[in-house]
Amino acid sequence: MARSKISASLLAAVLAGMTLAGCSSLENNDADKKNLDRFTAEEIYKRGEYELENSDEPEDAVFYFSEVERLYPYSEWAKRALIMQAYASHRAKDYEVARASAQRFIDTYPGDEDAAYAQYLLALSYYDQIDEVGRDQGLTFQALQSLREVIERYPDSEYARSAILKFDLAFDHLAAKEMEIGRYYLKRGHYAASISRFRVVVEEFQTTTQTPEALMRLVEAYLALGLYPEAQTAGAILGHNYQSSPFYRDAYRQLRGQGLEADVTGDSWLTTVYRQTVQGEWL
């Protein structure tokens, strides 16, 4: 998964404050952590910057940024510390805290220039938890929803393009999950169950990389059931849209093995898909 990046304005602020942070009288020890009210918001914030850039434990930076927010809740430093708390928490892979901090920033400062970055961080906190296909897909749905927020609410921001790319990858991830289940059923001869999964991919995830294989598996499943018109139509869609795909060659071989051609026949849901995707008849 791609790592998040700090926004340009925040990064400039971090670099500008590094020298001061290194010279601050605030040290990273238990005594000072218990007596932070002796220091200004700026001093605590800059210590957080210093820990973020020089420590292998982003949790220390999170602590200082959260203390700025706690001790000086209505200051400009508190606003800056809140977005940095979200960023540092994400780096620490404490995704729940990252989400909470980012959402709090969005709710409190919706018109701020860093609101787009906060929304992007919130989306990343879901996206970076998407693991192998076999896991529960709840996080994938949440990632898609949050990425869509970035794309729709901040289309001109520097994060919109990255959000679009990640949205496509997450969308493909959901389709891959359907394919995994469909292949499981197909291998065990549960053809009707497998067809329902491959149909979801063809109808709802047409733009993903999973569609060619889904069509080929439909050919395989329908042939096994003796439903030749459906198998031929699936092959026709595959041949028209993905003729150079190895999945088409496999589907063509299976059809020829039964003395059939890839052709649109009958009147099934696949016929409707053909009319829509090949002939453009959406109405």
UniProtKB/TrEMBL annotation:
It is a lipid-anchor. InterPro entries: BamD, BamD-like, TPR-like_helical_dom_sf. Keywords: Cell outer membrane, Lipoprotein, Membrane, Palmitate, Signal. Residues 1-21 form the signal peptide. The keyword Aminoacyl-tRNA synthetase does not apply. CDD domains: BamD (cd15830). It is found in: Cell outer membrane. Residues 40-234 form the Outer membrane lipoprotein BamD-like domain. SUPFAM superfamilies: TPR-like (SSF48452). Part of the outer membrane protein assembly complex, which is involved in assembly and insertion of beta-barrel proteins into the outer membrane. Part of the Bam complex. Belongs to the BamD family. PANTHER family: OUTER MEMBRANE PROTEIN ASSEMBLY FACTOR BAMD, SOLUBLE LYTIC MUREIN TRANSGLYCOSYLASE-RELATED. This is Outer membrane protein assembly factor BamD. It comes from Paracoccus onchidii. The gene is bamD.
